[in-house]
């Protein structure tokens, strides 16, 4: 989400002003929600649906919040796997030595409009996700992440250094790092909020699920700080990899900055094609982006499988089988949405864009709002503080109280209504 999604949103919605708003949201709003969801998961030892149900009749109608948290990853992981398939396709092309071909204008558009090819690579990625999930958390998820992520960071630094030293790239660095109020719009805030949810795994059920696995002596606040710092650091690194390259190869063309989800697949191949060792760099880079996509997809899938195991009392294999069906149906709609199914539009969006909008701009704010109300009306702020303080001091307690009580619910309602009004054409942002 940081490597693929963050740079194109930052490029589209104002560069430095987007980055500033994102960081402020991550350190306040994001912090509050990570702590809240992780603590509720540890407190109840349940995935999101079970966590809401654990409070019995007191939770009442709020139980829908658990189901929204559970459904979100089921909707995200199929279209996320479509993008994972794109990554595999590019990796294969670099292995073939087609470094110049993939950098050509129109290559990406031609590929995603070829529905059967896009479907093939989607299915390959989906198969890899299921193989890892069947291995379980420690054998599959944990072992994979420990090796892959540090290597990805090292390579990202190398690509960033190369990108920012290209002729004309300095203008891209300025655009991305220096806030310009002229580039601000209300949609900058909406997009930054949506990316914060996506990037920090808020309101996806992931934090509830992983919180339910951790020991009671785990320092929740320290872990949250680590997530904030490293996650935001990777987002900034991804922005520096891609946005300066856009300026270098297109002169900061507004149309290129508005490229959207395809930005990584259009810009970085041009960077690699200009490098003397571009084929090798492309291979290593897309291997590591694939691994990053896999860890994210596995987190989403693990939440869904965990929910089915808790609620249906089925085996892990049976729950994975159910997710296979959901994945293939929704993933196929997304992978073919630029080709055979391009004639089907929902509010003017193809399937991938619609699923992205529904989950990030509608369902996640609703799920987060349900969590806030659950804490304020049922669990109590004092109860949450007690859960957190049993393993560590609660250093940012005042910030947490203010945001969970006032800012978070108000912001969520505004963002939700703004997003819906925007897509319906009631307001323009």
How would you characterize this protein structure?
With 429 residues, the chain is mainly α. It is built from 18 helices and no strands. Helix 1 packs antiparallel against helix 9 (186-200), helix 4 (63-95) runs antiparallel to helix 16 (351-379) and helix 6 packs antiparallel against helix 15. The longest helix is centred in the last third of the chain and has 35 residues, at 278-312. The chain is globular and about 60 Å long. The two termini are 23 Å apart.
Give the radius of gyration: 21 Å
- Count of runs of 4 or more consecutive helical residues: 18
Strand runs, count = 0
- What string gives the helices and strands in order? HHHHHHHHHHHHHHHHHH
Q: Compute the average pLDDT.
A: 86
Largest sheet: none
Shape: globular
SSE topology:
Blueprint: H1 5-12, H2 16-44, H3 48-53, H4 63-95, H5 107-112, H6 115-134, H7 137-164, H8 169-177, H9 186-200, H10 206-213, H11 220-250, H12 254-257, H13 263-273, H14 278-312, H15 316-335, H16 351-379, H17 381-389, H18 397-423
Helix pairs in contact: 1-9, 1-11, 2-8, 2-9, 2-10, 2-11, 2-18, 4-6, 4-14, 4-15, 4-16, 6-7, 6-14, 6-15, 7-11, 7-14, 8-11, 9-16, 11-13, 13-14, 14-15, 16-18
